[in-house]
């Protein structure tokens, strides 16, 4: 049996320094590779929702592709320096442009899933090819026991992954954003890979190969630099493709992307998007917020707690009752609160609710706030849960058995809870899981809906709501209520009967350890 032994490299520096250069390159490339992975997971979760599913798809496809890349690297071992340089140049270009390409597919074609899988596969193959080639290069510098060489490479690789994993959420994402962060990472990757080969292993390359690599890496850096310069115009064009041409405000908070369109006094209704999903439409939001708030106000309502609802629209409906003494709003995103106070369109829509002295605002995660026992003016007669859709993974804990258990602790005797349970028509299982979860903490529930025709032959939106209390619940409206154009006692009872007819038997409660809202 003949063992292949790498030909010793002719280095311009001592072997110890050359070995350090290779391990440093491993560190940098590992950091860049993990940033590409995290960037794909984060952007796919933002564009497609359900972060658990997107992370599972990206990581599983990428790990599978890394195995393929390791096998394909066998064909490059005859010329490992050249092979490694080519792999890094292609990886830098692919990884650097992946975020921009993924966002473009979503904005102009409405479909990003295939692009996500494609980039995960390509990046995984290229990352998988790195280690076998680096193993060959480090053995050419100084032959050593294979186990020791693997240990050194993996140590540098894992430390680099740690740095990349921490740099993405704490540095690249908040400072540079998704697109520029990926482009800068690609540039670092290209420089690290090209510099190692063109400096340390340049004697392994012909003059023609050296110039070809230098030109290729230069072109990669030019393309990435051009992408960085064009990030602003690209984002504006993509945003208009997604939200329309009347986008007025687009900000990225520490929680989500917040976009306001229309509502600037020219007759176009205001629309509020959170992470690309329509949260508020000025055309039909009164129907939604009247249905969410007013059934819960049929009884004592001096102290009201609004969970979520930072746009101020649920608060607007609560404040229409003169005998309300205090309203506590617990909202996670300070940017939504700022816009609700200062944006002319949104402030006009919520009737400047946050100027009312009865309103107290808390910027916090609703689950943590309740768990820490922060309520200062409770117990509350009414709790309004105006939170993101339960089908979104980050919101799952806010529709869990544990969460509703915390809510009941701040509920006054005879108090009522109103919950938005999702689209009753499109996702009935999610809605009835919310119902089962409320019942699991000892609450009685009354389901009802609010259907809004969309026009032009489109199906109507079918919001589902649940009114819950410790005692049996009757759907009704307060006798001394403000004018409600879209909601009467008769329509409320009819919407309750319509919801009951769709009841799904056998739904199980959702818990933190066993979430049941996926799918």
TrEMBL record:
Name of the top EC class for this enzyme: transferase
Entry binding sites for spermidine: 289, 311
Alphabetical keyword list: Cell membrane, Membrane, Polyamine biosynthesis, Spermidine biosynthesis, Transferase, Transmembrane, Transmembrane helix
All residue ranges annotated as the PABS domain in the record: 231-470
InterPro entries referenced in this protein's UniProt entry, alphabetically: MFS_trans_sf, PABS, PABS_CS, SAM-dependent_MTases_sf, Spermi_synthase
Subunit relationships: Homodimer or homotetramer.
Stated name of the protein: Polyamine aminopropyltransferase
Gene of this entry: speE
């Amino acid at each position: 049996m003949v063992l292949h032994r790498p030909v010793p490299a002719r280095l311009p520096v001592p072997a110890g320094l050359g070995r350090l250069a290779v391990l440093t390159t491993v560190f940098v490339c590992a950091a860049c590779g993990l940033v590409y992975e995290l960037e794909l997971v984060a952007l796919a979760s933002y564009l497609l929702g359900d972060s658990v599913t997107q992370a599972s798809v990206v990581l599983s496809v990428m790990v599978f592709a890394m195995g393929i890349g390791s096998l394909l690297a066998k064909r490059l071992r005859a010329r490992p320096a050249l092979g490694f340089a080519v792999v890094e140049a292609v990886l830098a270009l692919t990884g650097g442009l992946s975020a921009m390409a993924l966002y473009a597919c979503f904005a102009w074609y409405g479909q990003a899933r295939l692009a996500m899988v494609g980039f995960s596969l390509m990046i995984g193959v290229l990352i998988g090819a790195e280690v076998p080639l680096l193993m060959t290069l480090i053995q050419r510098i100084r032959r050593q026991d294979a186990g020791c060489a693997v240990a050194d490479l993996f140590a540098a690789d894992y430390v680099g992954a740690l740095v990349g994993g921490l740099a993405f959420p704490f540095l690249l994402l908040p400072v540079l954003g998704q697109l520029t962060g990926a482009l800068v990472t690609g540039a670092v990757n290209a420089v690290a890979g090209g510099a190692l080969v063109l400096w340390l292993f340049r004697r392994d390359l012909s003059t023609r190969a050296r110039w070809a690599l230098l030109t290729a890496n230069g072109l990669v850096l030019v393309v990435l630099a051009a992408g960085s310069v064009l990030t602003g115009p690209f984002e504006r064009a993509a945003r208009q493709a997604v939200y329309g041409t009347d986008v007025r405000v687009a900000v990225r908070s520490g929680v989500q992307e917040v976009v306001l369109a229309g509502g600037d006094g020219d007759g176009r209704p205001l629309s509020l998007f959170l992470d690309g999903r329509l949260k508020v439409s000025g055309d039909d939001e009164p129907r939604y917020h009247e249905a969410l708030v007013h059934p819960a106000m049929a009884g004592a309502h001096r102290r009201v707690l609004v969970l979520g609802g930072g746009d101020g629209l649920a608060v607007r409906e609560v404040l229409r009752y003169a005998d309300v003494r205090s309203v506590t709003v617990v909202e996670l995103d300070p940017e939504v609160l700022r816009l609700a106070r200062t944006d002319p369109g949104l402030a006009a829509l919520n009737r400047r609710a946050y100027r009312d002295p009865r309103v107290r605002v808390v910027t916090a995660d609703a689950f943590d706030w309740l768990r820490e026992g922060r309520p200062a003016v409770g117990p509350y007669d009414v709790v309004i849960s105006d939170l993101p859709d339960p089908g979104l993974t980050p919101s799952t804990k806010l529709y869990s058995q544990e969460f509703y258990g915390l809510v009941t602790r701040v509920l006054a005797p005879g108090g009522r809870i109103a919950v938005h349970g999702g689209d009753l028509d499109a996702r009935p299982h999610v809605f009835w899981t919310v119902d089962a979860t409320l019942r699991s903490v000892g609450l009685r529930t009354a389901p009802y809906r609010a259907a809004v025709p969309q026009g032009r032959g489109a199906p109507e939106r079918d919001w589902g709501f649940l009114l819950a209390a410790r005692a049996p619940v009757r759907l009704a409206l307060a006798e001394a209520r403000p004018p409600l154009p879209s909601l009467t006692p008769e329509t409320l009872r009819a919407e309750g009967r319509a919801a009951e007819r769709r009841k799904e038997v056998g739904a199980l409660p959702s818990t933190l350890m066993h979430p049941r809202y996926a799918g």
